[in-house]
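Regression check, adenosine-3'-5'-diphosphate case 292:
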Amino acid sequence: MSLPEENGWNDFQPLCFYQGFWWHSYFIERALFAQENFKAQPRDIFICSAPKTGTTWLKALTFATLTRTHFRNSPNPLLSKVSHDCMPFMEMDCIENPFIPEKDFPLCATHIPYSSLPKSVIDSGCKIIYICREPKDSFVSLWHHTNKLRPKNNDNISLEEAFELYCNGKSPYGPYWDHALVYWKASLEFPDRLLFLKYEDVMRDTTFYLKKLAEFIGYPFSLQEEKEGELQKVIRLCSFENLSNLEVNKTKKSVFFRKGEVGDWENLLTLEMGERLDKIMEKKLRGSGLTF
Ligand code: A3P
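Current build output:
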């Protein structure tokens, strides 16, 4: 199959346009496999996002919430593993196992756009939590991340070049606006099945959104737990400060932790660049009810 390609972000792993989105070529085959073979179960919970929108954090919050009683008397795995390693990633791991392993917690993550999810995920009635982030901050995070991961013999992608690609919708799993939009529309259609979160909201009022998340996945914090500070324990465990200072995340996985701030784009983009992206987003999202 020959697909339109874009090498700008990465010559060693081009992006290919498939089913309306730009994918790393490596993942297309795996996503296709998942579409045909993945068997979601009604109890499953999917964590969905575009890259660099707060996925690491949402995975940690969900995992810690779901396992809070399980690990009451033993250390939570989040203290020794990055949250990505606490659950399967559909486009990687489904090739080995088309089910979420029975013995583990029923969590699975993916960057696959809603419109390309395996049919069983939609049909099984399972829960989906989606996180998105203010696009300028997400772009800046993506630019740093891409250059950090680049092999040493490859030149960095310049900010200007990356920005141009991003504004043209050409970013991993982009267009960014369409990724958010398909999940947004599904959340309006199936509010009991899809919880749509924004990084900035969760940052502003983590307690409120964690309670909401816990209720959504069917593991609400009881009044007793609230009194005993269980919510705050989860928030503290998953905080940027705590996770980014753990030995495991300071070394191998440091690429997932940079600043964790809202509004960092101002340190890198010009006002004109910011306005340009704002206008694009406004145009693309107009009438949808989704704003940033
Ligand atoms: P910055 O690059 O702006 O610092 P993802 O997890 O989807 O790859 O997104 C990465 C972004 O989330 C990075 O943003 C990273 O620092 C931030 N992040 C990672 N862990 C976090 C946490 N526990 N709390 C808040 N932000 C976090």
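Comparison notes: The first strand starts at residue 5 and ends at 6. The two ends are 37 Å apart (CA to CA). No diff flagged against the previous build.
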